[in-house]
Design brief:
heterodimer; A: mainly beta; 6-stranded mixed β-sheet; 4-stranded antiparallel β-sheet; B: mainly beta; 0% helix; globular
Chain lengths: 117, 117
């Protein structure tokens, strides 16, 4: 069964410091991996995705993520955090649809990132 | 211009009532989705329509009935509302077809906060 684990409910970091939000996944076949961000009372916004190719993926707002197949991980990173990065971050994995079906997107439980000034 | 819009933004109603949530996307996508986010922020797929055809139907009570009059609209009707239906409901869309395009990111609406009293 497909699943995503975000082992940390909360990550706190000082502005200007690097940040990492962890994600591990389980999926049959090749994974499609995504990161989304949710600001308070808003919908989810797409940050970046890994489909194939280079293991280091760059996305919006200076975020990047590294796909590690052997560790089944897809950690989100940013070299220098901003207070405005404070939000809820979701990792998601999509299995591949076959025939008449679509792949489903499975979300982790989310990690609340707080960046203090 | 709002890419994925939902109405209403807030919905407060009594147990046993019937209510609808509307969703529209102007991105020209073929596939639309309904997700439920519970009080712990966990996101789960409910339904997916591909070009007006029901593709994904998760284990959802049959009190929930999606309707897609055209590929730009996906409405959610809920009969006999229960306390446990209180949640935030998100509509999303993506450019995906049966078995193809699962790697495309989904665009989410702002959500509808449903409160059942």
């Amino acid at each position: 069964a497909q699943s995503v684990a975000q082992p940390e409910d909360q990550v706190n970091v000082a502005e200007g410091n690097p940040l990492t939000v962890k994600c591990t996944y389980s999926v049959s076949g090749n994974p499609y991996l995504f990161w989304y961000v949710q600001y308070p009372n808003r919908g989810l916004q797409f940050l970046l995705k890994y489909i194939t190719g280079d293991n280091l993926v760059k996305g919006s707002y200076g975020f990047e993520a590294e796909f590690n197949k052997s560790q089944t991980s897809f950690h989100l990173k940013k070299p220098s955090a901003l207070v405005s990065d404070s939000a809820l971050y979701f990792c998601a994995v999509r299995d591949q649809g076959r025939g008449s079906t679509l792949g489903r997107l499975y979300f982790g439980r989310g990690t609340q990132l707080t960046v203090w000034p | 211009d709002t890419a994925v819009s939902q109405t209403p933004k807030y919905l407060v109603t009594q147990m046993g009532n019937d209510k609808s949530i509307k969703c529209e996307q102007n991105l020209g996508h073929d596939t639309m989705y309904w997700y439920k986010q519970d009080s712990k922020k966990f996101l789960k797929i409910m339904f997916s329509y591909n070009n007006k055809e029901l593709i994904i139907n998760e284990t959802v009570p049959n009190r929930f009935s999606p309707k897609s009059p055209d590929k730009a609209h996906l409405n959610l009707h809920i009969n006999s509302l229960e306390l446990g239906d209180s949640a935030v409901y998100f509509c999303a869309s993506s450019q995906a077809f049966k078995g193809f395009g699962d790697y495309n990111e989904q665009f989410f609406g702002p959500g509808t906060r449903l409160t059942v009293l």
